[in-house]
Amino acid sequence: MPKPPKLPQGMPSRSQVLDFIQSSDIPAGKREIAKAFGLKGQEKIKLKALLKDMAEEGLIDGTKSAFHRMGGVPKVTTLRIVDVDDGDLVAEPDNWDPEAPGKPPRLTIREPRPRPGVKRPPALKRGDRVLARTEETANGAWIAHVMKKLPARTEGLMGIVEIDRTGKAWLAPVDKRVRQSAPIADRGSAEEGQLVIAERVGRSERAGVKVIEVVGDPLAPRSFSLIAIAKHGIPHIFPEEVLEEAPRAAKLKLSDKGREDLRHLPIVAIDPADARDHDDAIWAEPDGQGGFNALVAIADVSFYVRPGSALDREARKRGNSVYFPDRVVPMLPEVLSADVCSLKEGEDRAAMACHLHINADGKVSSYRFTRALVRIAHNIAYEDAQKAVNAGNPPEYLANLWAAWRALAAARDARDPLELELPERRVVLDEQGRIAEIAIRERLDAHRVVEDFMIAANVAAAKALEAKTAPVVYRIHEPPSREKLIALRDYLATMGKKLALGQVVTPGLFNRMLKDISDEAERALVMEAVLRSQTQAYYGPANAGHFGLSLGSYAHFTSPIRRYSDLLVHRALVDAYKLEQPAPPGSIPATSGLSDRDRASLQQVSDAISQTERRAMEAERDTIDRYVAAWLSGRVGEVFDTRITGVQSFGFFATITGLGGDGLVPISTLGGEYFRHDEAAKALVGTDSGTTYATGDRLKLRLAEANALTGSLKFVLPDQDAGVIEPRGNRPEERKRAPGGGAPKKAGKFMVGKRGRPGNIRHQGRKK
Asked: Among the CATH numbers 1.10.3210, 3.40.462, 1.10.1240, 1.10.10, which is that of 14-69?
């Protein structure tokens, strides 16, 4: 086999980087590129800047460990088989971004050749997921060499049993991205109209699926969250070894040896009224010099969940707890999350204590960390704490907290973090679990008090670890990319506003822009545009600051019951500040600090928990959308005040004012004229009348469809009949449909109606 040609040494050009990435036999990251071109010292720094510029220019995509050409496919990636073409299996990237320009690349599958003495792997079929090494041919086609078949996801295998006219059973999907029903080969005891979980049988799609579990009424209380759990593959059943280990860990005896005794302090935990777990509590008192001594006490989960234990492996796998209106899928078993680790009023608890000194200017002038024993004086709901303060004569412990917070808030204002008013929908269930109300969550000073104390502790944790040059899992929010800033500038220009890109972009720049807008509708419009320009926060061991909070170093320390990132930060503090408390021999692993595995895989575990966080956010949002659709299913035909939230070539999306729930208005329902999509202005413009539908516009729309199972809504103009959405245009552009908007095989009796009364379990809240 001929050796690859030697590359020119020294700083490469853009074209040389692209050529290397495309021709490399292995994933090409920054390290591989630097090695190939013999870069050292300052050249590596220049390479990092070059790669960042190329990413912002749309030339490459990926991460620092594996780049690929923009629009291309990573060297090693997960694919889903989607078609058969002349006998060849065809696949697409499993995690293709639906907002990416163009269609996802299609790759021809090449299965491994059979080898003597090696059992032939099972044949692949449509719907299978595989890990594959990819290559791009000279003519721009893509080939995928299968490395291994991956376990099937439950996504698409939850649905409604439907019976056609011939008596044949079908599984109608509840995921709006799955367009076709699957034949049911074995429905067991499942009846028509029931929600079921199924698995594929046989190697051919024609073999159909087998019902393995009957969930029941698809509009029953627990169904919406179950759909999200199944769709997103969220682990929700603890393995037996975890359930066996949890009680042993919970019985670890607390001792005041090696712990600071803080049980005399009136520490309070302020949480949602229906919170199941309490992982943080706060206290403050004046220092007599205009400042405050303060304490943030956090559940000492690292004492109970040791590296290498079954509990730890499962927590790492889950990454975080997932919160739904009717249930919580916890990161840790309930004996820990809701009992032993939870900071309950009047109970002795193990805590990691962050001692803060806040000076008269509201800045944290010093901090220290200890392992402590605490006894929470009060568990208080946000609303009750706020009511006590508003009454004018609050208890001393609340008065001190509010006074200390006002100092922290002044320092926060001086820091000028990004201030975006983002309303949060709240599902309220009644005693029977039925939807009582869906409303926007009220924002209280009590929420801000807790948040600012938590931010102060998170910053202190990051800086304390940096002071010891210890490993840190940072919470990172990078500044907006140049590409997104250019898009924001162009959009603001359509509104007659300027955004100069020559200046240093800070959160304060956006805050001032929003403050200068007096019109509420226009301000909301710009706020959404600013939000779209922001990057997504993530976890990582290499600090890149937190743009949104205007902080140079930030880590998550305050919620180890529900976030694995915080547990890793606690373990690092145990090591850095010699806070170890060994477990008795033979019970569970002795150490509660970072393990060798933690240290060696910090980047990988950071990437993994960033993914599980995104998964949880999507599942929670999907479930709220289903509740909103169920709430509205009995109001189809009514006209609502709405605001346009997004515009695409196939129509625009609008949300109901004060309620939320995005719904599509198909372009085919807007009348007989042709509407042009102005991408820069984010608007649809009628070529004959000039009628314009632009992001931010307020208008009345009639609800035409509310599908509680998929969470989707559809609207039409007020003068149209809500019963049928009839296409009027005859151009191809007018016939486009939203991605994933295909109708199920059978329209289904669950599209509209008054059965949307889910719930028999009370909402379990969480702290943001």
From this structure: 1.10.10
